[in-house]
Amino acid sequence: MDSTSSPERRLRPRIRDTDWLVLKGLTRHLRTALALHAKPQSRVLDFGCGTMPYRQLVEEANGHYLGADFGAGADVEITPEGNLAQASASTDIVLSVQVLEHVRDLDRYFSEIHRILQEDGTLILSTHGTWLYHPHPEDHRRWTRTGLLHEIESRGFTVSTCEAIVGPLAWTTLVRLTGYSYALRKFPVIGPLASALLAVVMNVRAVVEDRITPSDIRDHNACVYLVTARKTEPVP
Length: 236
Fold this sequence. Notes:
Layout: H1 7-11, H2 20-37, E1 43-47, H3 55-60, E2 64-69, E3 76-77, E4 91-97, H4 106-116, E5 117-128, H5 145-153, E6 157-165, H6 168-184, H7 190-212, H8 215-220, E7 224-231
Parallel strand pairs: 1-2, 1-4, 2-3, 4-5
Antiparallel strand pairs: 5-7, 6-7
C-alpha cells in the first residue's frame, strides 16, 4: 500500500487503483471499529497521522480528532525521540493506521500509546501481515497474526478483536498487479490507460479470489490486520 497517497484516495480508493481492495476493506473495518468504540466527543489521537485521511471517520463517529506526527502541521507533535507532546491519561482512543511497520522502536511507540490512554482506553491499530517493501521513510517489519497479537499484549494491552483484510489468493494477485502497473506507467499516454484497465480486471479477480478463500486461511495469511485492544496492565 502506498502510504504517501492523498487523503481522498486512502478514504475512497478507486477500482483502477492497485491497492483498491485493501484500502476499501481497511476503511470499512475502521469505520466499524470507531462506530463501536467512539462515544460523543471521545478524544481520538491518530498516532502517525500523515495527511490525516481518517479524520472524517472519527468525526462521523462524533469523536474529537487529534493528529500526531513529526514536524509542523500536526495537532500533536512527535519528538525526534518518539515521544508525544500529550498529557498522560488524556486520550480515549489511539488510532494507528499502517504505521507500525515503519516504527524502529516498538517499545517506545507502545509505551507512549499506553501512557496517553486513559484507564481502559482503546487502541485501534492496523499493520501489514504481508506486502511489498515500502520505505516511507523506513520499513522494518511484517507480522504473523500470532506475532502481532503477542507484540501488543506483551506491552500492557488485551486484544479484543483481530480482523484479517484480504487473504493470500487476492493479495498475490494485487502484488502482480502492482508490478505490471509500475512497468506500464513508464510508457507515455497509453501506459496509464492500460494500467487503469488492468487494475479494474485484476481487482475484480481479487474480489472473487478473496470470497472463495476459507476464513481460517485468510485469518493467518492476511495482507493487513486490524486490531482493537484495551489498555490493561502497566507497561512491563
